[in-house]
Amino acid sequence: MQTHENKSLASEAAAFDEMRRAFAAFRETNDDRLAQIETRLSADVVTEEKLARIDRALDETKGRLDRFAIEAGRPRLGSGAKSDHADREHKAAFGLYMRAGEAANLRSIEQKAMSAGSGPDGGYLVPTPAERDILRRMSTVSPIRQIANVVEISTHSLRRAFSYAGPAAGWVAESDPRPQSQTQQIADMSFPAMELYAMPAATQTLLDDAVVDIEQWIADEVGVVFAEQEGAAFVNGNGVNKPTGFLAYPTVQQASWSFGKIGYIDTGVSAGFAATTPSDILYDLVYALKAGYRQNARFVMNRRTQSDLRKFKTTTGEYIWEPPATLGAQATLMNFPVVEAEDMPDIAADSLSVAFGDFSRGYVVVDRIGVRVLRDPYSAKPYVMFYTTKRVGGGVQDFDAIKLLKFGVA
User: Fold this and answer.
1) Are 4 and 76 in contact (CB under 8 A)?
2) Domain ranges of the chain
C-alpha cells in the first residue's frame, strides 16, 4: 500500500513530467506559428488558440508544482520535534490561553523571560516552534523573501552604514598606515520593522477539540496571509507603515545610474519589445549588472510576462526559456533562474515588469523576533478572533545589485 508521502512524490513527479511534455508541445506549436508568420505575415487563428491553451496548461502545472513545494515545507500534525521543559511549559500555557483565555501561566512565563510589551494589550508570544513554522511558510510562499537577505533583529529597526563607492581598500606593507580614502562617503541606512497583522477566527468547538494542534492551526491560518501581504510590499510597498518595495525607489536610465536609484534598460517600444530580435534587450539587461552580481542573479517577473518571454528564441533557434530541469528546481531564462512574483506589474506603457539582479545583496528583509497573539472573544460572537502580529521591514541595501527592464522609450 502506498503511503501518503509516496503518493505525494508520485504526484509531483507526474506534474513535473507533464510540464516537460507541455513545453515540448509549446515549442512545436510556437515554431508552427512563427513559420506561418514568415510565409503569410500572420499566424493561423487555430494555431494561436492552441498555443494559448498550452501556455495556460504550463502555468497550471507550474502552480501545482508550487503547491507541492508548499506542502513539503508544512509539518504534519503531531510531528513536532521533542522540546525541552521550558518549551513544553510554554506550549501548554499558550494552548490554555488560546482555548480558554487563561493567561496567568503565559504571563508568568513571559515575565520570567523578561519579554517586552507582553500582556493583554500587546498579546503573547507564540512558542518558538510555531514561530519557526510561520516563517517557513512565509519563505516558501513569499518569492522575494526566498531570494533576499533575511536579517533577524530584536530592536525596532536595522541600521547599517553603507559606502557610496564601496569600502576603502588597497595593498600596504605590514607597517604602513591604512589611509582612509579622502572621497569616502558613508550613508546611514535604516530599515524599520513595521507591524503586519492577521485576524483568523475559530469556533469554540474547534478550540475545545483536544486533537487539534492549536499552534499549527494558527501557523496555518496566518503564514500564507502574512506571506501574501509582505510579498506585495517587498515589490511595491511605499514605506509608509510597510516595507519599501524595490520598484518604489527612484529609477534612472542605466547610463546615468547613481547611488540611491535603481538603473533600468528600456526596450525602446512602449508596452512591448522590439519587432525584430526582441530578446536582445534581455542580454543588455543581463550585462548591465556587474559580473560579481551576475553569479547569483535571477529574473523576477509575473506569470503573464513570463508567458510572453517563453516564445523568444536566439538567432540560432534555441528557446531562451526552459522549464525546471529537475524536481524542485526553477524555470530558467537565458540560464538564469526565474522567480515568479505576481505583484510585479504586467507589461504596459513604461512599466517596470522585469527585474534582474542579485537580490541577496540588493534587498534586505528585516524580521523582528517574535509573533504575538491577542485573543478576542467579544468582537465577533460566537467566534473567537485571534489578533496575530509580526513586525517585518525591508528595503534596497545595494542599489547597484538590481536592474530593471522598462517597457518604453527613454
Assistant:
1) no
2) 4-72, 85-164+186-302+341-410
